[in-house]
Specification:
The chain has helices at residues 10-21, 52-69, 83-95. By secondary structure, it is mostly helical. The longest helix is centred in the middle third of the chain and has 18 residues, at 52-69.
């Protein structure tokens, strides 16, 4: 990858897709699928995110805290989502 910052959102998108594929049983959590996510607001167990922008801002803040406080593999580096990265992820979720 030529531009690591532009692709910083890829691990997040892969994680969201992988979590949606986890099956129920043997201690696994039941994760709702991402298909139709744009139509299922509000988000989170407490309905604290009213739209996908608020959802992405929450995860961006969480990723910044984790990147600052946890050892990050040198090959990945800290995750710093730009406004364009967040807009791209939201556009992708709107396609589902």
């Amino acid at each position: 990858m030529k531009n690591k910052k532009a692709a910083a959102w890829v691990p997040l998108a892969i994680m969201l897709i992988a979590l949606s594929l986890i099956s129920v049983g043997n201690g696994f959590f039941k994760i709702p699928p991402l298909w139709g996510i744009k139509d299922t607001a509000p988000y989170f167990h407490d309905n604290s995110a009213n739209n996908l922008v608020e959802l992405m801002n929450h995860y961006d803040a969480a990723l910044q805290i984790l990147s600052a406080n946890d050892p990050v593999p040198l090959t990945i580096g800290p995750v710093d989502l730009s406004e364009q990265d967040k807009a791209d992820i939201i556009a992708y979720m709107n396609l589902l």
